[in-house]
Amino acid sequence: MPKEGVKLTEKPHLLTTEEIIKIARLFVKEGVSKIRLTGGEPTVRKDLPDIIFSLKQIEGLKTVAITTNGLVLTKQLVALQKAGLDIINVSLDTLVAEKYEKITRRKGWNRVIMGIDLALQLGYNPVKVNCVVMKDFNEDEIVDFVRFTKDRRVDIRFIEYMPFTGNKWEVDKLIPYKSMLKVIHAVWPDFHPLDNAPNDTSKNERE
Questions:
Q1: What's the pLDDT tens digit per position in 135-172?
Q2: In contact, 95 and 141? CB cutoff 8 Å
Q3: What is the model's pLDDT at position 163?
Q4: 50 within 8 A of 76, measured Cβ to Cβ
Q5: Bond prior to 166 in cis (omega within 30° of 0)
Q6: Which domains does the chain possess?
């Protein structure tokens, strides 16, 4: 979270529920079978359950997913599941509460973990956790994140630090994918690649 905060989009400029469904129908008509709701943060929309329910009624759409910061999953996830939510990705860049507060500028790490645990209890298997790896911030937690998968049915998705407006990207903060693998293989030499589908955007490995 930038120090100056983030300017929120004014409501008149946001898509309505009906507009989202109309656009989704056009995509599905052209062959899209999976839609992911991201953001920003999708859970700030009060109509999120309605959006998910309406999407699930579209013939030909097989999967509805969300990527969320996880802060309100304990309050919303039951309703989202009833609406038909298929897949959950939670963005979490650290397993240390103090570091979480530093990068997000708010408390809430425990709530995110509770949200992940609730998702598992509700049968989401696996829950996918997105972690952006940055030098001098969380590269020392790569092994801890892998160990996190030993205790919970989660898939950790390590993401290279990428530039976008407002994140003050610096190449010195970049930890390349191969460097992450080297750290993991030093602890678990038997980690090996899994087969990936042609449209996969990630490279999968397991012990």
A1: 999 999 999 999 999 989 999 999 988 766 555 656 77
A2: yes
A3: 66
A4: no
A5: no
A6: 10-89 (3.20.20.70), 92-105+127-207 (no CATH)
> Taking the model in full, what pTM does it have?
0.88
Reduced 3-state DSSP string for the chain: CCCCCCCCCCHHHCCCHHHHHHHHHHHHHCCCCEEEECCCCHHHCCCHHHHHHHHHCCCCCCEEEEEECCCCHHHHHHHHHHHCCCEEEEECCCCCHHHHHHHHCCCCHHHHHHHHHHHHHCCCCCEEEEEEEECCCCHHHHHHHHHHHHHCCEEEEEEECCCCCCCCCCHHHECCHHHHHHHHHHHCCCCEECCCCCCCCCCCEEC
Which backbone phi and psi does 176 adopt, to 5 degrees? -65, 155
The sign one gets for the Cα dihedral 171, 197, 138, 71 is positive
Angle among Cα 169, 141, 203 to the nearest 5 degrees reads 75
Euclidean distance between CA atoms 20 and 108, whole angstroms = 29
